[in-house]
């Protein structure tokens, strides 16, 4: 009916419904708390980053790239080799009477070395001189008879055969005299061999035989070994790939300087020049042997000594030169760190050339006046901030 309120039954919520509503509200509140917590953590980390100071500049050392001359050298191992090593042998049999040298002595060509007993050969010389005198007299008598027979033959006083027999008699006597002369010369030569002299100038080694021993030509050890020290050579080998640049300049008559260093390659012993190359490449090693000559006036180079050889092949003039310590090696190849304005570095790829000691020729990538880092490169990267010794300190950054 109009104007009258219809009575409806009131439904009261049960206990289960109320628990579900409270659980739903709890999950919503928990999610809001988690979101708020994550937001607070992110905000805190960002604020910490903003307060963190920038990375400190890296302390390095730098050097300036310059123009200059650099030597093109080839390095090799060499052996000091004398031009003459002579084992003094006896050329005659006999007793060794006297030694005329001291071990380790420098002797000159023609100096007395040893004396062998000459008396047997002097006696033989006297005997052959007597034979020569006798046979010379026989020859003289035969020649006189030949002159007389020739005159009688011309007068037709003797037979032709008698005259010709006398001609042959003279020739026979001449042969005998020449034989005697040869025996006399051999005896005199043997006597000369008894007096042994130095065949070359050089250093006397250790004596191989003592006075009183009977020496023979069949002995293989000899009396002493003499080694020539001045001048002296060094034999060394280079790879066949390096031969063309050496051979081309050597064939043109250019004097190529050779330096000999000690075994560790630190001390310079002597300076000489290249004088010859081998006539062929060793196919088993792929190398070719070269000989350098040294005056060795101070006798510092000793036979069979091992040395480090430095052969000057060429000289690069007015080229860009950088310290070898500046060259780094990596994926892009050889590179350097170039100091930029504002105390930063730039990684620059370079092409290197010959190396000479602590210097290297840079064929491309650098120019004279560039500053390159030579110490402290292990922590650098492209664009990194650096500080150089003696440079003013960078201004502080607010926290």
Give the key terms:
4 helices, OB fold (Dihydrolipoamide Acetyltransferase, E2P), six-stranded antiparallel β-barrel, Elongation Factor Tu (Ef-tu), domain 3, 399 residues, 3 domains, alpha+beta, conserved putative lor/sdh protein from methanococcus maripaludis s2 fold
Task: Describe, in plain words, how this protein is organized in 3D.
It is a single chain. This protein is α+β, with helices and mostly antiparallel strands and 399 residues long. It folds into 3 domains: 58-69 and 317-387, conserved putative lor/sdh protein from methanococcus maripaludis s2 fold (Beta Barrel); 73-83 and 231-316, Elongation Factor Tu (Ef-tu), domain 3 (Beta Barrel); 85-225, RNA polymerase II/Efflux pump adaptor protein, barrel-sandwich hybrid domain (OB fold (Dihydrolipoamide Acetyltransferase, E2P)), CATH 2.40.50.100. The chain has 4 helices and 23 strands. The chain has helices at residues 15-51, 119-154, 160-194, 243-251, and strands at residues 58-59, 61-64, 66-82, 85-88, 94-99, 106-107, 112-116, 195-197, 202-204, 214-215, 224-227, 232-239, 257-261, 268-277, 287-294, 306-323, 328-330, 333-340, 344-349, 351-356, 359-364, 371-375, 386-387. It has a 6-stranded antiparallel barrel with strand order 3-12-15-14-13-16. Strands 4-11-9-6 form a 4-stranded antiparallel beta sheet, with no helix packed on it. β18 and β19 form a beta hairpin. The chain is rod-shaped. The chain crosses the membrane at residues 24-42. Residues 318-379 form the Multidrug resistance protein MdtA-like C-terminal permuted SH3 domain. It comes from Massilia horti. GO terms for molecular function: efflux transmembrane transporter activity. Belongs to the membrane fusion protein (MFP) (TC 8.A.1) family.
């Amino acid at each position: 009916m109009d104007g009258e309120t219809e009575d409806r039954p009131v439904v009261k919520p049960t206990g289960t419904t109320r628990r579900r509503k409270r659980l739903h509200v709890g999950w919503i509140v928990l999610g809001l708390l988690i979101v708020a917590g994550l937001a607070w953590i992110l905000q805190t980390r960002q604020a910490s980053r903003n307060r963190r100071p920038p990375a400190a500049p890296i302390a390095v050392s730098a050097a300036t790239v310059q123009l200059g001359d650099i030597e093109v050298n080839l390095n090799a191992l060499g052996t000091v080799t004398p031009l003459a090593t002579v084992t003094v042998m006896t050329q005659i049999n006999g007793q060794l009477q006297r030694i005329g040298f001291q071990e380790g002595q420098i002797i000159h060509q023609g100096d007395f070395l040893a004396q062998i007993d000459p008396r047997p050969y002097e006696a033989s010389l006297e005997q052959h001189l007597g034979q020569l005198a006798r046979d010379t007299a026989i020859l003289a008598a035969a020649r006189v008879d030949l002159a007389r027979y020739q005159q009688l033959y011309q007068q037709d006083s003797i037979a032709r055969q008698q005259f010709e027999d006398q001609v042959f008699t003279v020739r026979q006597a001449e042969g005998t005299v020449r034989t005697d002369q040869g025996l006399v010369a051999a005896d005199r030569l043997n006597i000369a061999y008894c007096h042994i002299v130095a065949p070359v100038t050089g250093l006397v080694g250790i004596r191989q035989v003592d006075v009183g021993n009977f020496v023979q030509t069949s002995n293989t050890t000899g009396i002493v070994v003499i080694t020539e020290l001045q001048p002296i050579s060094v034999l060394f080998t280079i790879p066949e790939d390096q031969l063309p640049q050496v051979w081309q300049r050597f064939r043109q008559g250019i004097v190529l300087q050779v330096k000999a260093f000690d075994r560790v390659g630190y001390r310079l012993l002597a300076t000489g020049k290249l004088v010859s190359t081998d006539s062929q490449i060793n196919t088993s090693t792929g190398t070719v042997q070269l000989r350098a000559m040294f005056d060795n006036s101070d006798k510092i180079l000793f036979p069979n000594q091992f040395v480090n050889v430095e052969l000057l092949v060429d000289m690069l003039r007015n080229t860009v030169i950088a310290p070898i310590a500046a060259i780094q090696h990596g994926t892009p190849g050889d590179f350097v760190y170039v100091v930029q304005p504002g105390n930063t570095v730039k990684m620059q790829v370079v092409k290197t050339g010959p190396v000479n000691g602590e210097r290297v020729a840079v064929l491309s990538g650098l120019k004279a006046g560039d500053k390159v880092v030579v110490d402290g490169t292990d922590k650098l990267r492209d664009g990194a901030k650096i500080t150089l010794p003696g440079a003013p300190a960078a201004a502080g950054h607010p926290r």
